[in-house]
Structures are given as C-alpha cells and as structure tokens.
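YM 10:42: Methionine--tRNA ligase sequence, as discussed on the call
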Amino acid sequence: MSHDDFPTDDPAVVTCGLPYANGDLHIGHLRTYVGGDVYSRALERLGQETAFVSGSDMHGTPVAVNAEQEGVSPEQFALDWHERYAETFPKFNVEFDNYGHTHDETNTEITQRLVRDLDDAGHLYEKEIMVAYDPVDDQYLPDRYVEGTCPYCGAHARGDECDEGCQRHLEPGEVEEPESTITGNPAEYRERTHQFFAVSEFADYLSDFLDRLEGTSNARNQPREWIEQGLQDWCITRDMDWGIDLPGENPQDLVLYVWVDAPIEYISSTKQYTERVGADAFDWEAAWKEGASDDHPEGGEIVHVIGRDIIQHHTIFWPAMLEATDHAEPRAVMASGFVTLDGKGFSTSRDRAVWADEYLDEGFHPDPLRYYLATNGGFQQDVDFSWEKFAERVNTELVGTVGNFLYRSLLFAHRNYEDGPDADAPSDDVAARIDEAVDDVAAAVNDYSVRALGDAVTDLARYGNEYIQRNEPWKLVDEEPAEAEQVIYDCVALAKAIAVLFEPLAPEKSERLWAQLGEPGSVHDATVEAAREGPAGDLREPTELFEQIEDERVEALNEKLEARVAESESGDDGDEESETGGDGSDDDETATTDDTDMTDIEPLSDDRISFDEFQELDIRVGRIEDAVGIDGADDLLKLTVDLGAETRTIVAGLKQLHDVDDLPDTKVIVLANMEKAELFGVESNGMVLAAGEDADLLTTYEGAGPGTKVK
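YM 10:58: structure's back
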C-alpha cells in the first residue's frame, strides 16, 4: 500500500459493508453500496487497477431466530436473502466484480486458516467468562438473544452493542440486567470457556494506524477515543449452532463470532474474483498479503465503504487481525451517515421506508437515485429523503442543468452538421475547463468525496450552458459559419467529457450519451484521458436523458407512502423501535435508533419577552476558523470563531453531526453574551445556534461579515 495520490501502481480493492441476510433492502441501505460503486468506478476512470467486492453476511443470531420462526434452516433462510440481494444490486447499477457470502467454502477455509494463524502467533487465549443463560428455557444466550442496560452510559443495549446510547461494542457478560429476547425471561450469568483475541496488545499499532488512515474524518477520530479509554480484548466465539466452527479442539462446539468471518469475506470475495478472471487480470494476494509480490511488498490499496455504526469493527478489530496475520492494512475507511425519510428515522416494522423494489416499481430510473444519494450532503452526514427533495434535485440539476445542456447542444449539432461539427481541437478555454473538471474528479477521489464527483460534472454542464448561451451559435451559422462550427464542436467536446466523468454516478445514462455521441466502444472502459480528447464519432439524433418529475407525481407518491404507513401503524401500539438501516453495513441486523416523530413539534411558548429583553441578546455573525475534537468527549468540538472584533473559543456538540473537516470557513450565528462555561477542561465563550436534533447550523445568505449584529 502506498499513500500516493490515486492512481497508483498498486492494485486497489474497494469493499462495501456486508448486508445482513435478514430482510429487504431500502434506499437507506443503498447509500453505502451506491457510494462504494461510485468510488470504485471513479478509481477506474483515473486508470487505477481496481476490484470492487462484497458479499452477504450469513451468520449471527437474528438469522437463526428468524429462520426458526419461518420453519427453515438458517442456511436456507440466509441463502434466499443472499440471492435476492445479488439480483437487486445490479438493478441499481451497483456492479460488484464479485459478490459472495460468508458461509461459502472459500470464506470458511480462509477464516479458519486466519484464526489458526492468530493462535499459532500467540494472539489467542482461553478465558472463563460470564455468559447470559435463560434458566427457564435452559439455554445459553449469545449476542442478540440478550438485551439489558449498557454498563458505560446506562442506555438500553443489545448484548453486543450499545445501539441506543454510546455505540460501544459490548463483550459477553457486560450488559447489565440481562433479559432473554426469545422468552422475555430474566437471564443470569454462568461461567463458560471462550476464545479471546488479544486486541489490547495492538494499541500502539492501532494508534499509529489511525494516523495513517485516510477516508472520512469520523472513521479516523471516533476510534481514538476507544484507544485512549483502553482497549479490551475481544471474545471471538459464541455459544451457537449457526456459524463457522472454531478450528482445532472445540469441546464446547463453539462457533466464531460473526464479526470474525464477516470482514474476512472481503479477502475471500477478492480471491474468488481472481479465480474467475485470472491473476494476470487481478492478483488477490498482491492486494491483500504483505510480501506476496515483489512489485507490491506492502499489499494493495484497500478502501472500505461502510456505515458509521460499524466504524469500531473496521478500525480496531479488523486492522488488528490483519496486522497479526501479515495482511495489508486498510488505506482508507469511508463511513456514511444514515438516511432518514421526511425527517424521521426509517422504520421497517412500520413500513415507513422507500424500498428498493418500490422505487423501481414506480418506474424511476436507477441513475437519478444514485446521483441523489451520492451528492446530497457529505458522505458522513445524514441525508433526509423526501419525494419533494428528490424531485427538486432531479428537475433542477439533472434535467435543468446537465440534461438541458446535453440535449440542446447535441440537437443543434445533429441538425446543422450531418456527421457532427468539424474542428482541429477544442478551443483553448474549453480545453482548459475540461482539464479543470478532470482535476476536480481526481481531487474528489483523493479526498474520498463522492459528492464532489457529482459537483465536478454539474459544474462542467453549467459552464456548457453558459458557453452556448454566451456564443449564440444559432446567430453565427449564417454570418460566421466557421466560428459557429467551432462553438458547437466545443459543446460536443464538453458533452463527451461529461459522459466520461459522469459514468461513476450515472453509468447507464452515460453509456446512452456515449452512443448518441457515436463514440466507439463503451464509456465504461474510458478513462479520464478520453474526456480530454475531442469528439470522434458520428452524432446520432439525441433524446433527453432525464425526465422531469411533476408536482402531481410527487403528491401521488406521498399519498401512497402515507397511506401505507398509516395502515401499518394502525395495528401497533406505537412503542416499537425504528430501524434506520441507513448504513448498509454488515452488522448483525439493521441499525436502530429512536423513532423520533418530527411531526410532534414542541408547541410555541406562551412566555413572551419584551423587545428590550431581546435587545439584550448580543447575537452576531461568526466564521469558524478551526474545529478540533475534545479529548474524552464523544460529541464536543472546540471551535475557534472569528466574531469580527475578536476571536473566541466556543464548545459545541457537533462532532457526530457534521463533517469536522468541512466546518472551517463556515459562517454561523453566535450568541455572544452567553455566560462562560467550562466543558471537559475547555472554556466556552459563547454559543453557536443550530436547529433541531441534527444541529442544522444557522447561517446567512448574503455577505454579512463576522461581527455583524443580528437584529
């Protein structure tokens, strides 16, 4: 692995967190897989040798429980969902080079070999631990068979994770006041012998690894707190029948914890890809094994695209396993935020979600959704989906900007030049603008920003609209035909560049555009160098790439969704947990959060203040100059804010809600005469104002500078 800018000479592997084979996919899940597919395609556009792999996570307690409820074996239950996922992803143009699953022969073999290597190297040991046991039902209760209270923050927690509170991974026996999720009986703890991986021995390595790690800032910053608090060794076995057997002597018939074999599927899936295409096309060992290749002694460029709720697994446990077994460490981890629906968490139990199949059944093309999910906010930020917002982005950006430029320029070219306009090369200004767009795409890849990939294309199309409008070739055709032909040639050159650069986000639409341009071969095989080349094909009569979504259609979609949710909720007591599922992760089940009903807005206060009291509030425009995390605080940032007359330090709870790297230069509204307070040893001198639980920062829309008073 290198840390050189992409493209590099080392093979790259892009992975997506494994979907858990336990239920339907909705658009919240798709955010991670679309993000991974976009990033993988963008690497290939730069000329990077890349394999894009994933697979279904087949093991764990929810599969076993749900299979029993349906009267089938866990293997059959999980395989049915695996096959369904394998059919669904291509419908959204998510094209894995290999999509396997954790129960296949390859992953079983590699997992058991890697665990034996850990044992041979002295990193595993046996330990007597307290395991939850249901004395009424007479069975041990691993992981999700247990619920109780988190010992760290006091929130309600699952047996292996504080999913509603501090998000910490929990070891067997840690959850307090345990109950069986099968029977509801109070559980008790009994001693059992289990295998542990000595993760604590790798604390120094992991700290250095995080210094090297690239990707989103949440994936780099969050794990540091866990290391500073002291790493606990990791129990890697469970009392279950369903899973991969612990290799070697196994008198208690233990299976490996699902989080052992799940990430190993990344290696297994890459190996299966090599077995299909040959090592000359892609060498899985050169990518994953240190020292396996003289040309790639440190392995390849490993990029994990995951949901933010599984950061700990990918930045603590997994790299420690890789380091202990002489495998290449990840170069980057991109951790996405969740997707909400009209400001509310997705709820699969209440059918409040836009399902993947539902989206397609409504007749929508997959590429507009890909564009929306990839570009609507930073990758690590939560994204709110509504049909109104979706329609607005499609209508203004895809139809009004990209589609408008492509159709008007190609239609004019087709009607006025039989074989396409002829010129020696694009004009200097247009060539320079295309070069700038190519540079923007390369920068987006190296910044791990799928949003910036989309911005590079829409900005180029916006330039194209301005260019054709400014030069008015329809007026030049008769009086200055050579100049008119150069202008239209430039527009076709811009269209070709858009086809190449837009391929990662809208692969099917870009291929259609490529055909309209009459270019040879497939746009999927074109690199960014093709974007710099002038058009060479015979133009075909263009058709519009994107369709307008009318207001009436949005209203009908909303009515259908609201009716379905109302029907589902009429049969429950309203106390269920909501499942956001917006991570697309390989966790044991879909991530859950509180089902916050954003329609239950707090009533307006009847307590009024006078104008004079309002005047006493010193509210100013500020500009954030710097933002850094505060040691020991999960949510707090230390902000340096320019208030015009002076610069102040303000503590704000924004760490988990905003991309920290994006905050500098952001204009904010500050209550300047707030009493000073000390938080985690940092004096806060003011308050940054924000709206709602997601801390939507208040700002200005014009040029008010730092220090301007809000009246």
